[in-house]
């Protein structure tokens, strides 16, 4: 498999442009299934493996898809199958959005249970609760989720836990349900809002996305539309952290600064300077930063998806830092890799205690999952000597052209094809 070879210790200067949001794109593409006429033209799609996976799955269902750079034109009027059972379905988490989309439009679906990064138990019980509340019968048989309904009827649904996946999935199913659906205790992440905006562009009637309550008035049908995916909050946060870790001055372009406030606040607390200018942020850092305490929380709190990159920065910050991972119970698998490079980290359950060291040293490490991979790249960038990052197929799932973006701002990083 490919690997990244990094010679660390170089400050970064220049600009990095952020792609469309992975977590929005992998939900918006399946949502196009809901259009019973017309094409969905979706722009600013990131060139990553998870997106290509979804596109292949949609084609296996009979959708016609034409792609041109970061734009996809989807015709879902040609769907011939309501069963998603390919290898692509099994290897990515977001394939469960096919359930809500197919159920919403066709009142029936069969989708194999999803895969994704091994960062903890991620049940779909809240998804099932929502589908059943709308009137669907749900069975799990032979590793697949089977859903079917004579009709979907709007109702009030209170989620037991805040879940991005369940919020989006039930929202997809409810757009064409009869009457009004009210979703309470919902996720408020930017990509939830983006999916709602996309559905509204298709003719849905959804209000309240981004708040605690989403209200959906069912409509008769949805039609194709043109839409542009929001910038990727997590990609932007990762490059902000990398810039602060390496030192120098990097402008992160094509971002929505409000989505990044929790990350900016922590970097400023550590001693970095953040300059906001329209749709860009400049990160300035000079000298060793100081440690901070972090607790991951649903939006607008500190994102769990940048906890691992941030933990790398904290390994070389002054003093002690404590990370409380409140979202996923297995999101410290990268710690053993950081220890190979000299990090001083102790993990107790969902808490990591980090005592900053003067420097990390290069080593052969692996990406244990998507965001852990980004963390190891940052570790290589700040380490003394050469670092090899293996299993980078995980990184490619969420970071388009990561080595090219870092090269452009002065990093010594190369991809080796094996």
From TrEMBL:
It is found in: Cytoplasm. Keywords: Cell cycle, Cell division, Cell shape, Cell wall biogenesis/degradation, Cytoplasm, Peptidoglycan synthesis, Pyruvate, Transferase. GO terms for molecular function: UDP-N-acetylglucosamine 1-carboxyvinyltransferase activity. SUPFAM superfamilies: EPT/RTPC-like. Its main location: cytoplasm. It catalyses: phosphoenolpyruvate + UDP-N-acetyl-alpha-D-glucosamine = UDP-N-acetyl-3-O-(1-carboxyvinyl)-alpha-D-glucosamine + phosphate. The keyword Transferase applies. Pfam families: EPSP_synthase (PF00275). Its EC number is 2.5.1.7. Pathway: Cell wall biogenesis; peptidoglycan biosynthesis. UDP-N-acetyl-alpha-D-glucosamine binds at residues 93, 122-126, 305, 327. Phosphoenolpyruvate binds at residues 22-23. It is an enzyme of class 2 (transferase). CDD domains: UdpNAET. The active site is at residue 117. The modification 2-(S-cysteinyl)pyruvic acid O-phosphothioketal is found at residue 117. Cell wall formation. Adds enolpyruvyl to UDP-N-acetylglucosamine. Belongs to the EPSP synthase family. MurA subfamily. NCBIfam families: murA, PRK09369.1, PRK12830.1. This is UDP-N-acetylglucosamine 1-carboxyvinyltransferase. It comes from Clostridium algifaecis.
